[in-house]
Amino acid sequence: MNFEKIIRFAQSLDNSRESLEGIYVHLLDAFRLERPEEHEFQRNGALITFDGHSGAGKDTQIVLLKKHMQETDMYDGYRIVELVQKRNNPFRQVPKYLWAHPEIQLETDCSQLLLTAGRRYFVYHTVLPLLEDPESIIILNRSYLSHVAYHASNMDELPALTALSDFDPNPDLAFVLECDVDTAYSRVIIRSPQKGGVVYKNERPDYIERVKGNFRGLATLVNGLVFVDTSNKPELIAQEISQKVDTHFQKTK
After folding, report:
1. CA distance 188 to 175
2. Can you tell me the distance from the alpha carbon of 224 to that of 142, in angstroms, rounded to the nearest whole number?
3. For residue 173, which of 238, 78, 245, 221 has the smallest C-alpha distance?
4. What are the backbone dihedrals phi and psi of residue 48, each rounded to the nearest 5 degrees, phi first?
């Protein structure tokens, strides 16, 4: 697989719908994948999303919410599915190669385009088919909003980047986790041995601050975002989130 050739093509494109279609078709062909159907899916299941900056505690809260739902009678008969895009994105090798080789990076960052193409495949191949099942509740670790928040260099870029992902299904509950930057960075440092002691650029305090601000900016463009302060003990935060989820499902029954 010639990753550099794919990246050069992506670097020749802009962040438009036409460019997204172009890189999407190019990636499908390069990875020899069939294009998933993009018909209008019947939405029957429920979707809960978790977003937030590095160190906000998404993984922890997803585990605790899933455990709560599996142990609560209200959710008997439902299939609780946890999804993470990076585990289901066949194209992820390409932006990873780009990030690992700064010598081929240009001033214009094409990683957002590559990640959005991967998300498009993930949504049509995995998420939307699962949502056709009325007994499915999907807990999604990062929606398209994370791609936008991490790649927008300022809030002025948010509308255009958000518009690229109009294929993403609207969640029933959209949690955005946040805490103060010092707390977030201390969590990043604590877990860094799991990644060989590496702290990535997007995990550093200045980047966390930018991402946190971008999520607040997205709240002016996207309705229904539920911000949760995760500075407290994980168990107490989990109770708050579980109560919000329980209340939602009680109302929809």
Report:
1. 20
2. 16
3. 245
4. -120, 125
Is-contact 95 202, C-beta < 8 A?
no
Query: Do strands 79-84 and 173-178 pair parallel, antiparallel, or not at all (unpaired)?
Result: unpaired
Whole-angstrom CA distances from 100 to 36, 95, 103, 118, 203 are 29, 9, 9, 18, 16
User: pLDDT tens string for the chain (253 positions)?
Assistant: 899 999 999 999 988 899 999 999 999 999 999 999 987 888 899 999 999 999 999 999 999 999 999 999 999 999 999 999 877 778 888 988 888 888 888 777 888 899 999 999 999 999 999 999 999 999 999 999 999 999 998 899 999 999 989 899 999 999 999 999 999 999 999 888 877 888 888 899 999 999 999 999 999 999 999 999 999 999 999 999 999 999 999 988 6
Q: Whole-angstrom Cα distance, residue 249 to residue 24?
A: 36
The answer to whether residues 226 and 143 touch, using CB atoms and an 8 Å cutoff, is no
Domains and CATH numbers, the chain: 3-252 (3.40.50.300)
Structure tokens at 28: 């499908």
Can you tell me the distance from the alpha carbon of 202 to that of 210, in angstroms, rounded to the nearest whole number? Answer: 9
Residue whose structure tokens are 């979707």: 47
Pairing between β-strand 79-84 and β-strand 225-229 as defined by DSSP bridges? unpaired
Q: Alpha carbon of 66 to those of 99, 145, 241: distances in Å?
A: 32, 21, 11
- Structure tokens that stand for 95 in this block: 């932006």
Amino acid sitting at position 21: E
